[in-house]
Amino acid sequence: MAARKLDGRATARDIKAELTERVAVLKEKGVTPGLGTVLVGSDPASHSYVGGKHKDCAEIGINSIRKELPEDITQEELEAVIDEMNADPATTAYIVQLPLPGHVNANTILERMDPAKDADGLHPINLGRLALNVSTPVNAPLPCTPHGIVELLLRHGISLNGKNVLVIGRGVTVGRPLGLLLTRRAINATVTLAHTGTVDLPEHLQRADVVIAAAGLPGMIKAEELKQGAIVLDVGVTRITDPETGKATLTGDVDPAAVDVASWISPNPGGVGPMTRAMLLANVVEAAEWQAGIIAD
Description:
The chain has two domains: 30-115, 3-Layer(aba) Sandwich (Rossmann fold); 143-272, NAD(P)-binding Rossmann-like Domain (Rossmann fold, 3-Layer(aba) Sandwich). α1 runs parallel beside α9 (272-292) and α6 packs across α9. The chain is globular, with a radius of gyration of 19 Å. The chain has nine helices and eleven strands. The model has no long low-confidence stretch (mean pLDDT 95). By secondary structure, it is of the alpha/beta class. β5 (164-168), α7 (175-182) and β6 form a beta-alpha-beta unit. The strands form three sheets. The protein has a six-stranded parallel beta sheet, sandwiched between helices.
């Protein structure tokens, strides 16, 4: 039997509907959440990505604050923009779109952000709060993609309690923080973190109840290597350009034949991607609720 689909698009629509109601409550209290984006340069993919976020904002009633800056902006000029976003009361939370130009120190820019306005949940202080709180609530924005992965599973009735979860990928946006989130007592998974340098990956795959592939290496997870009935989430995205037509397509880390082995599988695209965008909106709304006193710190 083919695997059931972990439908990120449908789940994200449900989350957006819930957020729309929460935004309406905030507006009744005189608070309108605002998402800010800082975009440097003219990269088409980055512009498309940021544009999608602002489209999402319009759907649920969040204001958009855009900062589109030239490729040759200096470190000092960009730091001044970050200071403006930190001080702007209309900006509830914001993101700095990566990658930044090579002449800009990205870590310095990200660390300059106000942690309370960190829409991505990746500020070092917020990641530190996640690391420190195993049992107690994390009063900080959670990393969007890891949070989206967990929410996608939970909303499909899948508990990770006691399951062996193999996370493949050690990036700061997914792999590294995902292990912190999955091992919290409320989720209670047993996590193995693998990556492109793991020499015995097939052995890990055979033992894993859940596989979360986020390495960005097309087709690295072979169907025959998976445990029968495993739950598989294809997170990694690679843009591949056809040399003859010049047309670019997006592909994931998981062999399409995995649908015949897995019990559940998230499509790529259409699985975790929409959930990441939804959880970004959730971080903005939650930040506004903290500021309005609806959620106690």
